[in-house]
Amino acid sequence: MPVALQVVRHASEHPRRIALRAPGGDLSYAGLARRTEAAAAALRSRGIGRGTLTALSLADPAELLVAVLAADLAGATPLVCDHTWERERRERIMATVPAHVRVEAPLPSDPGPVPVDSGASPQDRAWACFSSGSTGRPRAVVRTRASWTGSFPHLSALTGIGPGDVVLVPGPLTSSLYGFAAVHALATGATAVVPGRWPARPAAHLGDVTAVHVVPHRLPAVLDALRESGGARGRLRTAVVGGAALGAGVRDLAVRAGVDVVAYYGATELSFVAADTDGHGLRPFPEVEIQVRADPGQELGEVWARSPWLAEGYLTAGAGPLRIDGDGWATVGDVAEPYRAGEVLRLRGRGGGAIQTGGATVVPEDVEEVLRRAPGVDDVVVVGSPHPELGSVVTAILETDGPRRPSRATLEEVARGGLDAAQRPRRWYAVRSLPRTPAGKPARGLLAARLADGDPDIRRLT
């Protein structure tokens, strides 16, 4: 069933229940249903319906969710875009995406009686978003309705989130993590608190919040806000944490604050893969099979998953980390220790060099493509360096030397001009010559190991 129809059902049963708390004010389920139906009719009047891709770029989180639900109700596929993209970059990205219409302003609230599409199928393309770190070579991930909404009951069972909950979603809905959290809350009939970004004062948003979705490095701030707010203590029951590994000791802090933690591992392309509900380790998410495939003689292998929750793939021909074999198993290149069914999945990082930083997945090749444009850079390798809060930070190692070596200020200017915030290197190094494989490619793994070992030939740029 489309999430929009579930919202309509909640509106008929509990019309006055608050569906959304957003910067512009509260919106009841009855109000959200009316707005959604009107907006869906407006889309249909523009010829948008089954099989069409609707690109949505709206700053206000409530207006964005109305547009998402409207596209869903009209039978179209909503593609959630980042409204902060600069115009030139937006045009470059959108030129590669087969969108039928672009919505960059709130949809009309009373367009007239235009019928909406009610012939929804579980195999409809019902959600699309850009994977973290998209550039001029974007990776728009698309999934079916079944892969999108079918996991909702399992997440509800693991987290206890239901109609009586108030769920804080303190991040941009362009992120698959936060977008999923908001839509799941609405599908269950809960109240979704959607500030649109991380709030300056988290305590001001806690109030009667009973559950929160966060990336790991934000959970300590939530716990600090609980102590600050005083009265909110005891209301927040559950923290759902994804996007990176949960730091040692953070779960203990949450338990002492009376908050249960449900941590999970997944990816935009794979959705949920494994969950840790008790601090004893990651185990397969319901209906998920896991394999770790290692080459002979290797201690670590790639994580492969097979489940109903896998994305359909990418909307464009741009390369991405998702690979699917002939038996329906998929991977994004993450690596783990050997695994057998019934055991705990022990992740060891991103394969292929992909970097998990603060809940975002950054593909090094995207960053390298931009940095190679900087004057004086002969070549560059981007790796992840450990960080106590973010998991990893993007680190650039430049092949450059002598008077042509660019300044850090120049490099940062180039990064700002072509990269999203999560993609921009936090640490910069230079080396005369990058180590290379026999095929002539930079030896990323060897270089990362040399950096970790403090190789004096790799010089820090300040």
Task: Quickly describe the structure.
By secondary structure, the chain is of the alpha/beta class. The chain has 13 helices and 27 strands.
Structural description of this entry:
Strand 1 and strand 2 (25-28) form a beta hairpin. The mean pLDDT is 88. It is globular, with a radius of gyration of 22 Å. The strands form six sheets. A nine-stranded mixed beta sheet has the order 2-1-9-8-10-11-12-13-14, sandwiched between helices. Helix 1 runs parallel beside helix 7 (176-188) and helix 2 packs across helix 3. The chain has two domains: 3-266, Rossmann fold, CATH 3.40.50.12780; 363-460, GMP Synthetase, Chain A, domain 3 (2-Layer Sandwich). The protein is an alpha/beta fold. It contains 13 helices and 27 strands. It has helices at 3-13, 29-45, 61-74, 87-94, 145-149, 152-159, 176-188, 203-206, 219-229, 250-256, 364-371, 408-418, 444-452, and strands at residues 18-22, 25-28, 53-56, 77-80, 101-103, 125-130, 140-144, 166-168, 191-193, 211-214, 238-241, 260-267, 271-276, 283-284, 289-293, 301-306, 313-314, 323-324, 330-331, 334-336, 347-350, 355-357, 360-362, 379-387, 391-399, 427-431, 459-460.
List keywords for this structure.
single chain, 462 residues, alpha/beta, GMP Synthetase, Chain A, domain 3, 13 helices, globular, ligase, AMP-dep_synth/lig_dom, AMP-bd_C, ANL_N_sf
